[in-house]
Write a structure and sequence with these properties.
Elements (H helix, E strand, L loop, with lengths): L8 E6 L10 H15 L3 E6 L11 E3 L9 H13 L1 H24 L3 E5 L4 H8 L4 E5 L3 H7 L6 H16 L2 E4 L2 H11 L7 E2 L19 E8 L8 H14 L4 E5 L5 E2 L5 E2 L1 H8 L3 H4 L2 E3 L5 H10 E6 L8 H8 L4 E4 L4 H4 L7 E3 L4 H12 L2 H19 L1 H18 L5
Parallel strand pairs: 1-2, 1-4, 2-3, 4-5, 5-6, 6-7, 8-9, 8-13, 9-12, 13-14, 14-15
Antiparallel strand pairs: 10-11
């Protein structure tokens, strides 16, 4: 198929599939892009590390990473290789199945362009092994996210950072979810990346009748969607809500997300329920805090429409789906002034920004909306309009297709 024609055959690497079986922003991005690309007449193929169930309507290729899928002799040799040279082993064993499946998907589906994230630098091996153009999508390089998550900077971590830099430098094209992460990547790796482009994640396509409405939400209810860990600021959520309760005792916090544990400055690992009981005794029994655990993506819109305020208090983010999803529904939102979040919303117009890692400021911002529902509703209406104008799926998909055409014409490799 001629890349200058009206349609493309596009391949995406996803950490898992389908969306409702996983909690991952990259999977959400791939799912949204795949849906919109198909609506526009393009063909989409998914290569995924962890496929759960069927995926009608889209070719999905599962990457066989389970040890049981290999012969005993091969597993023994790979075990020896890992003990002798772990980084080489991870690179070769981890990339080999992906390359094999991408080659098969390309041959069977006529894939012209393949896109994958920078994680673990696997794209460096893939780019050398396939004949079609490869686009690396910057979702969150490890030099940024590793530090935020408090990972010890050992040799393996340093190797991952270097390998991701090699993948970014090797790729035929680079796109980024935010200006912030693109500029940080350029500076950290000393890469010009002249042809790189910022393409924000698409919003959900939401009908006006499905928007958040003041008269239908639960007064004084606050929603947090995210993991309980250092990165997503799960501890800050609880600390800030304790301050909210001092002024609004009838406030309620809904915490929807996995409990991965939070390690404090003393090195103690806290589980979510344990942390809540320590900081806010009795809040679980009274119903002031509800811990829902991981919720499927399809259930989150209902939670967002019920809450008076949605909060995002990560210590770092690229261009998080949780912000765009809330905005697309017209939800009043308070989000951290970190990373690419200020590129998504304008403080005081379509949301409120709070100082990063500051539970007092976060609480004050939440209270300002709980105490002024009309103001909250105004911010929500503006947020929905912003998403329609800037992040509508069709707008993002058309920008992406134009980007693909440009880099294929200027720099790409055609099979």
């Amino acid at each position: 198929m001629d890349p200058g024609s009206s349609s493309f055959s596009i391949g995406y690497l996803s950490p898992g599939w389908p969306l409702d079986a996983h909690s991952n922003g990259v999977i959400s991005y791939v799912a949204d892009m795949a849906d919109q690309m198909k609506r526009m007449g393009h063909r989409v193929t998914i290569v995924a590390d962890d496929v759960v169930g069927e995926a009608p309507g889209t070719p999905v290729y599962d990457v066989p990473l389970a040890p049981q899928s290999r012969r005993l002799g091969q597993r023994v040799l790979e075990g020896i290789a890992y003990r002798i040279a772990p980084r080489w082993s991870i690179d070769q064993i981890g990339c080999r199945p992906i390359v094999k499946v991408i080659r098969r998907a390309t041959a069977e589906q006529g894939v012209q362009i393949f896109e994958m994230e920078e994680a673990f630098g696997r794209a460096a091996s893939v780019c050398k092994a396939i004949s079609i153009p490869l686009c690396v999508r910057l979702h969150g390089p490890w030099f940024l996210n590793g530090e935020v998550e408090g990972v010890v900077e050992d040799r393996e971590s340093q190797w991952r950072v270097r390998r991701e830099g090699q993948a970014i430098a090797t790729a035929d094209a680079v796109s980024s979810s935010s200006r912030d992460v693109l500029e940080r990547t350029r500076a950290y790796y000393n890469l010009a990346l002249h042809d790189a482009e910022v393409i924000y994640p698409p919003s959900c396509s939401v009908l006006p009748a499905e928007h958040w409405r003041l008269e239908e939400c639960i007064p004084n209810q606050v929603l947090f969607v995210g993991r309980f860990d250092r990165h997503k600021g799960g501890d800050l959520v609880i600390e800030a809500f304790g301050r909210v309760l001092r002024e609004v005792p009838r406030a309620q916090l809904i915490f929807a997300g996995l409990d991965l544990g939070f390690t404090d400055s003393d090195g103690r690992l806290w589980r979510l329920e344990e942390f809540v009981r320590d900081r806010l005794p009795g809040a679980l029994e009274s119903g002031q805090i509800s811990l829902l655990g991981r919720m499927p993506s399809s259930a989150l819109a209902v939670l967002r429409r019920k809450a008076m305020v949605t909060i995002v208090c990560s210590r770092y983010e690229n261009a998080p789906r949780v912000v765009i999803e809330a905005m697309s529904l017209g939800c009043p939102i308070v989000a951290a002034r970190v990373g690419g979040i200020p590129e998504l919303l304008e403080d005081g117009w379509d949301g409120l920004l709070h100082r990063a890692e500051d539970p007092d400021n976060l609480a004050a911002r939440i209270l300002s909306l709980l105490n002024n529902p009309a103001r909250a509703a105004e911010l929500g209406r503006n947020a929905a309009a912003t998403c329609e104008r800037r992040f509508h799926p069709e707008i993002i998909a058309r920008q992406t297709v134009a980007f693909y055409r440009r880099f294929i014409r200027d720099r790409g490799r055609i099979a």
